[in-house]
Amino acid sequence: xxxxxxxxxxxxxxAESFLLTAARIDQTFQIDVLAxxxxxxxxxxVIYVTDASYGFxxxxxxxxxxxxxxxxxxxxxxxIGYPATVDARTIRGLRFREFCPTEAPAYVERxxxxxxxxxxxxxxxxxxxxxxxxxxDELKPLIEAKYPVDVKDQxxxxxxxxxxxxxxALFTKPGAFQRVVALSPSIWWDERALLGIEAEFxxxxxxxxxxxxxxxxxxxxxxxxxxQMVSNLYTLDATLRxxxxxxxxxxxxxxxxxxxxxxxxxxxxxxLRTVFGRTPGFESxxxxxx
Length: 290
What we know:
By secondary structure, the protein is an alpha/beta fold. It has a single domain, classed as Alpha/Beta hydrolase fold, catalytic domain (Rossmann fold, 3-Layer(aba) Sandwich). Helices cover 40% and strands 20% of the residues. The protein is built from 9 helices and 8 strands. Strands 1-2-4-3-5-6-7-8 form an 8-stranded mixed sheet, with helices on both faces. It is globular and about 55 Å long.
């Protein structure tokens, strides 16, 4: 009788995984990298994806399939997550530390009271600045030294709190990424603190040269009205369009019949196709501004 022979943990075929301890965060991250096979004749775009502990597999499969169909240029995909030894509940708490730009103590107190253990003791939100510095100052140089990436064609993609973080990165280090994909961003965080961060940026900014895609599931607001997920994204979209930045290329899409948890795959695909100019109507986005 045939048997199932175990070969160890499942991995993404063709990918490599590394551990990297952040210098300014008491945390070791798992870095998953999928680089195109074969000869590379010129530097490749690089796509950084947060929440890789949950989504690197689907991101990698998506990128590979899109490459096959020539719906995306060959690119190096870099996932940022946590080692397998970190349990899922702890990861949910660490996401607040890594992705949120402010502490929001009242919210944290309520969550710890109503959902004990969801945000572990000793973990406080508000570390988005440190996490962004980890990516730009520590991770990026290592990726650029090991893989043939184009330092002038870098994408950041994030979902939910990761989408909030992607927008935070856009407004605090606008030159760090030339393409930003912010999916279902949690703009609600800390009384919409992100909108204040954007307003501070706008006081002195003359331009915002980036290809920006944002998206939301149409059912997200009905599922949890207090977060105003759809309304907040419309507010941000209108605000940015009103700034009239000369080199800002932006698109927002609302996906009908999708929820916060179901929208990821389609919006990630559409986001990459859009910022890379492979979606009809956005062909000119294939060339970056500047």
